[in-house]
Amino acid sequence: MIYDFFITSPSKNDDRMFPQFLCIGAQKAGTTWLHDNLSKQPQIWLPPVKEIHFLDHPEPSLFQLLFSRRSHHKLARANAMATAYGMISSRSKFSDLAYAVKFAYMPRSWEWYASLFPDDPERLCGEICPGYARLRMETIAAVVHHNPRIKVIYLLRDPIDRAWSALAMHFRKRPGSSVVDDSAKDIIVRLKTSKSFGHCQYERNIDAWLEHLPSDQIYFGFFDRIREDPSGYLAEILRFLEISDEVESHSAHIMVNASLGEKISPEIERDIARLLKNEAASLHRRFANPYTERWLAHAEAAADSSVI
User: Fold this and answer.
1) String of b and e for 92-116 (b: at least 16 CB within 10 Å)?
2) Are 171 and 217 contacting, i.e. CB atoms less than 8 angstroms apart?
3) Partners of 221 in the β-ladder
4) Is the pLDDT of residue 132 over 60?
5) Strands 218-222 and 124-128
6) What gap in Å lies between CA 252 and CA 33, rounded to an integer?
7) Closest CA to 148 of 55, 217, 73, 225
8) Confidence of residue 159 (pLDDT cuts 50, 70, 90)
9) CB-based contacts of 30: which residues, under 8 Å, 6+ apart?
10) What is the pTM of this model?
11) Mean pLDDT score across all residues of the chain
12) 3-class SS at 220?
């Protein structure tokens, strides 16, 4: 009975819907910046946790929902706890708690995922999750089946800089350590793992999504614009989402989830460049803009450098 209430109780936040847009990455290419800015738009609704990871992770067990140390599970549990405490001070309603419990603890399914998004004609519903760039073909097909009109945002970044930033984030998770404490060999081994390298495969990821969606339903953004023209960049993304020009952009210039500035060594930069030079070349062939031109020049110079 309690389970049925949490999964099916009729409330505005519980109507069956499916996201109208997804931001699929890339990891370390400005997705947190975008989430922060989209969450300030009154015409947009985003889940209480940035990355749900429904589409790219296997269904978790009850034990994992309760105890997993993965960040999206921990954040979902923290949201449920905060909502429960909010009821004490009347900041939260019981329907809010029902939603938070469903979000954190209920079994995953397509129905569960759809139920997270409110059917609100005044707001556009979406999710931002960098893991979705590298979805399998059959999963992308299922997404498009559930919403053929879905819009997809794919933010791109210099392949070398993006890979290094992701590596730094990974190694930073160990207490008292950072990526600069590891050998070049260990760092490159990490980059070559299927999960890590999947984030590097822009061309494969782009082609997979374009196999199922027309090009006018996919927006490609370029990380450099966050520094060069953040307000204009945000406004362009919102126009793609068909949000009115009256947008909140006063905080668009603020960097979110920035790196700690771990400096890449010439040896590691060369090794990463040799792995990703073809990706940089493919991106420039596809987009041929000043950003991809810089990225390709960076990859070619780094790959050909002599490290002593």
Assistant:
1) beeebbbbbbbbbbbeeeeeebbbb
2) no
3) 155
4) yes
5) unpaired
6) 8
7) 217
8) very high
9) 155, 157, 221, 223, 226
10) 0.90
11) 89
12) strand
